[in-house]
Design a protein that fits this description.
This protein has 218 residues and is α/β, with parallel strands linked by helices. The protein contains seven helices and ten strands. The strands form two sheets. Strands 6-7-8-3-9-10 form a six-stranded mixed sheet, sandwiched between helices. A four-stranded antiparallel sheet has the order 2-1-4-5, covered by helices on one side.
Amino acid sequence: LRLRQVDFAYEPGRPVLEDISFSLEPGQTLGIVGPPGAGKTSLLQLLPRLYDPTRGRVCLEAVDIRGLALEDLRSLFAFVPQDPFLFAGTIRENVTFGAKEVEEGKLNTALNKAELAETIASFPQGLDTLVGERGVILSGGQKQRAALARAFLLQSPIFVLDDPVSQVDVQTAHRIIQNLRQAGTERTMIISSHRLSAVRFADWIIPLEQGRITEAGT
């Protein structure tokens, strides 16, 4: 995955990202850190083409992603937004959404990696609990972990995670980060966070300030 001199703006003349360049080899983990409004979410949204850059290129294996069929491109990504969307169905339906075949063992593994299994066990109807419109019965942290479980279940080669532990307690966050660290040995991972501790294990870290990379390293 390579970005070359990428700029992005939602409105002409008001850049959100400027001159973003980095390379990420298969199986590597990239951490993106910075305060709210630094451009982290906007950068992540360019990868599965929720938006296109206003300048520069996003490439996979030297191919500009704008030349790939959108369905083919997005099948490569498991994308967990900062504010995950849940449908008005059961927890099971929300976690397995997008997965072609779901074995109970693989589902349980995904729930455990997302630190959601114990929470679900506390619900009288377990996985068959109805979450309501946009997951209204769940807390922000529970919704976040449901979206993480969905990503773990999909097993896509590239994980894109937007502040995945922002709404959970410190102990749960630590366990999730350890699980992500283990998963990062099997796939490429891009994680944004306002906590440096959440991406400390990454192969490469880039801090963003006002849409620009200010430094880069471990």
